[in-house]
Structures are given as structure tokens and as C-alpha cells.
Amino acid sequence: MRSLLFALLATLCFCASAQDAWKPFPYDQSAFDYSGDKLRQAWPQLTRGFGTDYPYPDEAWVLKMAKLHPQILGAPIIASQAQGTPEELASAYAAKLQDAWRSMFRGDFAQAKEQGMALGFGGQIPAMFSQVIYAMFLEADQDEKHRLLEQVIELTDEAGELIKLDIVAQFGRTYAKARLGEELPIPVSLKRGYSSQIPDELDAMLSKKPLQPYALTLYGGYQAGVIRKVGSMLGGLTYGVSAEKMEAYFARAFAVSDDLPIGHYEYANALTYVYGDDQASKALQHLQQAASFTPISAMESLEIAQAKQLLAGFKERFANN
């Protein structure tokens, strides 16, 4: 087992490039300290958007992956540990992987990407999710934003069958497609196949793990986004979307977890896309709720800031009417 684990860790390397020249996280990070055992203790809450049992990347997880899915790992562990026991090698890998997750939750997204990409597919998960977060919330240039999201899709697709092993990797890829689909011209999105891939991928995720607030929220947002682009009639006939389905997905997401900022501001957006000003008071309530949360991670901090920005614009628009 030891030789198998070390050989796999040593030969399937994703080489880390120089750290991306990304903008630093713009808000206070002091509340996002998950050093030591704090990460394990906070893990269920930090990952609640992916359901209730997303596995903690500890030594036991590494040993399991090395035995069942050895190709999921892929970095050379410190040379001095080459003669270590399987448990020592797994512990070394897990420590590095946990640090990549800590960087992501803290908002050091470029560092999380660099750390993660040096660790094979296991590390690519926080690396690519960090890139999605950075692209969506901090990259001001739209062309660069699209390039970053497209790279997430490409690198995740290169993992092949491994993508089926991890819900965060699956969601990150689909989320990137959904955001690109919203911003790209319809012909481009159709040519790339996003219009069919997004619901198919969300259906696959939810068929295995139906209680995923992020996936349910994304599905509700997808329904609303299609209606916004092509209208409810064409959207229903061509893509099978509807206001009723949109409402149902958000209701399911809130039933699982009502304390995710992104759920409330995405629902506020969806209400506006589908109903215009007819549901303005309800949209306002959800934006206010999103803005009222206390973040436990950099991602949530960015989501809350986004909700506050939307709330200010919402109030200004209606104050001028």
C-alpha cells in the first residue's frame, strides 16, 4: 500500500504555475481563520451548500482515495517522506490539501489555486472553485472573466471520469457554464451546448444527492435566466422551463438551508427576471435577508456585498419611480 500510494502521488503531478496575478480579497478576512482543527470543526457549515455530508479531506480520505481511485491524487510528497508509512504519506498530502481549502475559505484565491493545482485532482477541486469565485466576484474585465470560467470547464473536463467522484467539482463546472450562458450571446451558448448541458448536469447531481442547496439554487436561477432571455412561452416550449419550476427549485433549496446568502439574492434576481416589478416587494425582502447575514467565508462575504449592492440599486430604482 505504501509503495502504491507514494508512486501515485509522485507520478500523477499537476504542475503548479506561478501564482496568478489576481486582485487581493477586498474585505476583512480576520473572521475566516480556519487554522488547525478549526477547519474540521467548521467543515459541515462551510460546505453546507453541497449537502450534509461532503467529506473532510483528512488522512482517512486520502487513504481511501489511494485505494479506490488512485488517479484522484497526484503530487510528489516531500522527498524525505518517501520511506514513510502509508499513513504518514497520506497525512502529508491531506495537510497540503487542507491548506488549499483554508486559502479558499479565507479569500486568498490565487494562493488556493497554486496550492491546489500542485496536488492533482484532489487539489484541483478547491483550486478551480477558487477560480470560479474570483471570476464571478472580483474580475472586472469581462473577457478575462470568461477566460477564467472557460478554463475551469476545460480543466475539469480533462479529469474525465474523476468528475463523477466529487460534487464540488461537478457544481463548479456547471456553475461556470451557467454564468457564461447568461452573458454570452444565445447563438454562442447554443453552439457550445450549454443550454442542454446545464440541466442535464444538474439533474445528474440532484439524482445522486437531492439535498444540495447550491445545485437547487442554480437550477432555479437557470429557469429564470432562460425566461429572461427568450420569454416564458419560448422558454417553456424549447427548453422546458417555467416560473413554477423556478419557484419549486428555490423552495427546495430554502427548505434544506435558509442561511445561504447566494440563495436569497439569486431568488431576488429570479423574481425580477420572471415577474418584472410584480414581485418587487418579495425580491426586496430576500435581498434584505441576504444582506443581513454574517459571513463565515470569503465567498459568503462577497455574496453579501453583492446582495447589498443589488439592494441599494433596487431601492434607488423604486425611489425614483
Describe the fold and architecture.
The protein is an all-alpha fold and 321 residues long. It has 2 domains: 1-161, no CATH class; 210-321, Serine Threonine Protein Phosphatase 5, Tetratricopeptide repeat. It contains 16 helices and no strands. It has helices at 2-11, 38-46, 59-68, 86-106, 109-117, 120-137, 142-158, 167-183, 186-192, 194-208, 213-230, 232-239, 243-256, 261-275, 280-292, 298-319. The longest helix has 22 residues, at 298-319. The protein starts with a helix and ends with a helix. Mean pLDDT is 89; it is low at 6-18. Keywords: Signal. Residues 1-18 form the signal peptide.
Biggest sheet layout: none
Q: Give the count of structural domains.
A: 2
**How many beta-strand segments?**
0
Q: What is the rounded distance between the termini?
A: 70 Å
What would you report as the Rg, rounded to the nearest angstrom? 20 Å
DSSP strand content = under 5%
Tally of helical segments: 16
Assign an overall shape.
Answer: globular
